[in-house]
């Protein structure tokens, strides 16, 4: 008998509970979390020395003494930070495939693939809300008028292209692997969902490393919303779309304006209550829209 069991088909109803039937759950969970932690640590270890190079640092700023290196959004920083985050998409897929013996790409959805048609279908409903939210955020805290130069246009293009990749990777880590691993510890599917959602939401807020209570609350809300949509749709497409679009509409305006300190100020001081409320309402509306879309599809099947 082969020491490795054959790949198990993914559940067609409960995405988060797919790994529950696997034997030796404690051992597999330990191995998966260890591998994931090692991958995250390796990314940070690769990024840290790069942050000390001129490739990623702007050597001067009006608010600092001349020659003082400070962290600023540069092409090198965008490439390094986002690509070193995006690499966790294949990492999580490989962890689930080889430690839990799941079919390739089963982490994407219960259909064992990333469902691009579903993402495009949801995008038609979600993008208008996200664009309105982005416009309101700029009214509350303007980043400045667009400054159309080769540098800002290049940076904006890189931001719009790379940021969604990093956002998708975070969804594969949190709504995907971590949620499935932690949900496998509970026999009851509902208990498993809410316990794993609480755990991943706390970790999701923690990695954003902000002292702002309102920002932490938003991270928890976005995480819970992503988990709900993943459960309803049986895959990560909706949560990836919400995360990617939310980040792009927040980050592109200041980059296009050449206001590279805008996002760092938000990170250090935290967004205003108004900004968090707008972003939170956007999450709520998107979750409601996705829920309605799922109900409509079920109605058609009946």
From TrEMBL:
GO annotation, biological process: CAAX-box protein maturation
Domain spans labelled CAAX prenyl protease 2/Lysostaphin resistance protein A-like: 157-249
A Pfam family recorded for this sequence: Rce1-like
Keyword field contains Membrane: yes
Membrane-spanning segments: 185-207, 240-260, 272-291
Record protein name field: CAAX prenyl protease 2/Lysostaphin resistance protein A-like domain-containing protein
MF (Gene Ontology): endopeptidase activity
Keywords for this protein: Membrane, Transmembrane, Transmembrane helix
């Amino acid at each position: 008998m082969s020491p490795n069991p054959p790949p198990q088909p993914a559940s067609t109803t409960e995405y988060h509970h797919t790994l529950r039937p696997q034997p030796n759950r404690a051992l597999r969970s330990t191995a998966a979390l260890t591998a994931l932690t090692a991958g995250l640590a390796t990314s940070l270890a690769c990024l840290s020395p790069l942050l000390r190079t001129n490739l990623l640092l702007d050597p001067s700023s009006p608010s600092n003494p001349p020659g003082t290196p400070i962290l600023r959004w540069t092409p090198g920083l965008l490439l390094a930070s986002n690509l070193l985050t995006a690499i966790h998409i294949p990492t999580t897929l490989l962890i689930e495939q080889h430690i839990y013996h799941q079919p390739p790409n089963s982490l994407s959805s219960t259909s064992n693939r990333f469902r691009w048609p579903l993402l495009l279908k949801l995008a038609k409903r979600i993008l208008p809300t996200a664009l309105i939210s982005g416009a309101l955020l700029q009214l509350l805290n303007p980043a400045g008028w667009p400054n159309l130069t080769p540098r800002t246009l290049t940076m904006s293009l890189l931001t719009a292209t790379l940021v969604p990749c990093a956002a998708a990777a975070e969804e594969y880590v949190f709504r995907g692997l971590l949620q499935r691993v932690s949900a496998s510890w509970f026999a009851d599917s509902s208990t498993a969902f809410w316990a794993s959602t609480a755990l991943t939401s706390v970790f999701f807020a923690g990695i954003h490393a902000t002292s702002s209570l309102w920002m932490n609350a938003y991270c928890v809300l976005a995480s819970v919303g992503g988990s709900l949509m993943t459960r309803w749709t049986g895959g990560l497409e909706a949560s990836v779309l919400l995360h990617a679009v939310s980040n792009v509409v927040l980050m592109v305006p200041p980059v296009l304006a050449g206001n590279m300190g805008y996002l760092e100020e938000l990170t250090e001081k935290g967004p205003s209550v108004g900004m968090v409320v707008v972003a939170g309402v956007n999450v709520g509306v998107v979750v409601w829209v996705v829920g309605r879309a799922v109900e409509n599809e079920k109605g058609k099947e009946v």
